[in-house]
Model the fold of this input.
Amino acid sequence: MATLTAKLTLSSTDLTSDTLSMALTNILTVAGDTRIFRRTVLSAEDELFTDGGIVIAAANYGKSYVLFHNTSSASAEIITLGLADNDGSGDAALETTNIALGAGEFAFYPWDSSTDIVADAASGSPVLEVGVFEAA
Amino acid sequence: MANINSGTIKSILSLTSRNVTNDILNLRVDDTLVVLEDVVQKRVVLSTVASLIASTTDFSKAYIFANNVSKVNITLVRSNNGDEYMHLAPGQWAWFPWSCSVDLMAESASGTPTLEVMIFELGHNN
Done:
């Protein structure tokens, strides 16, 4: 049984009159697969990941902690992430979007692995860094 | 209308592990976010029926911090019993740029747990 220490720090001195200074640390238990990889995300193409057309397949993982990082520095290269195939059509199209990663932006959250995750790029071919840490 | 807010947030995420693989993990990503619109901090008491956390009619693209401060599992969902985005066990949190294309809702596995939420409305897409 392995552990993953995740620490998030948020700070600001000019956002509001109240200075923001927050740090959270979570020690997460990892018992399954660990994968860190980079993939090119194409624009105007939902089925961009060749492994079944999806970025992370629900069938391959149990609950996992996931990191998505848009490594592009071009402001127009926004990567949209969302859930696939909630219309029952059997495809891997991005049908529900919930995360939009601008250049340099990142997301980290516990994914429940109930639905595949699909990505799409607004333009260009930005590189998406993905980390998957399968929980116990 | 001029923006009522203009500030920056420094966000840093570090992931470290000595035993998840033989290669010691030491990953860090950081970003400085420009926030031009609303900042909301709140705690929401949930139930097994999904509650609205952030409405697309109230915000544009925003960064969301969601923290399960209770002892019951919480799920972020698209709608009541709908598609599940994230699963927050007690003490777990999420940090992500919400696209604001679909309402963000949350529901509990049982009971009435509390979800801590911070919303930082960017006011721009990058």
In short: The longest strand of chain B covers residues 7-17. Chain B touches chain A through 51 residues (CB under 8 Å).
